[in-house]
Specification:
3-stranded antiparallel sheet; two-stranded antiparallel ribbon; 125 residues; 31% helix
Length: 125
């Protein structure tokens, strides 16, 4: 694993604060109502909404890495994108072991999704 520089740590801290803030501001965003199921080795299962997962701030950001973009078009010359994983580590209430979950969307895709205003419910029902 590569050592993180002071600048990397500051950037990750800023991104985490941004995710928590955007999640709290967008509490009623339909995307945040999706659920993630955490399953411990002992068999304990806990279900959290994406909102609970993100707004609580009980997550860490992993090391950013480059991956080949699945969306290649003629206007994009660089075929790689950066992805920063979001990791949740939670203690199991049954056995005390850590439960590790990786959020299904990277920071780079989640931030724009949370920055978009929701459609007007009166207009779109």
């Amino acid at each position: 694993m590569e050592d993180r520089t002071k600048e990397d740590i500051i950037n990750l801290k800023f991104m985490k604060e941004l995710l928590v803030s955007l999640s709290q501001k967008n509490r009623y965003n339909r995307f945040l109502k999706n659920k993630v199921e955490l399953k411990c080795k002992c068999g304990h299962i806990e279900t959290l909404t994406y909102y609970d997962f993100l707004a609580g701030g009980e997550f860490n950001l992993g090391q950013p890495f480059s991956v080949v973009s699945p969306f290649i078009t003629e206007s994009i010359y660089d075929e790689t994108i950066t992805a920063t994983p979001i990791n949740l580590i939670k203690k199991c209430p049954e056995c005390g072991e850590d439960i590790l979950a990786i959020f299904p969307i990277s920071v780079e895709n989640l931030v724009p999704l949370l920055q978009v205003r929701q459609p007007d419910p009166q207009m779109y029902g």
